[in-house]
Amino acid sequence: MKRTLTCAFGIAVALGIRAGATAQTPAAAQATPQAPNRDMHYRLGPDSLPQEGVPRGQIRGPFALPSEAYPGTSHTYWVYVPAQYDPSTAASLMVFNDGQAFMNPEGDARAHNVMDNLIYRREIPVMIGVFINPGRRPDQPEPTPRDWGDRSTNRPTEYNSLDDRYARVIVDELLPALYKDYNISRDPERRGIGGASSGAIAAFTVAWERPNQFRKVLSIVGSFTNLRGGHVYPEIVRKSEKKPIRIFLQDGRNDNRGQGRGGAYDETRDWFLQNVRLMKALTEKGYDLNYSWGIGRHGQKQGGAIMPEMMRWLWRDHPVSTDPQDIVERAFREPPPAK
Question: What is the DSSP string of 237-267?
Answer without folding.
Answer: HHHSPP-S-EEEEEEEEES-EEE-GGG-EEE
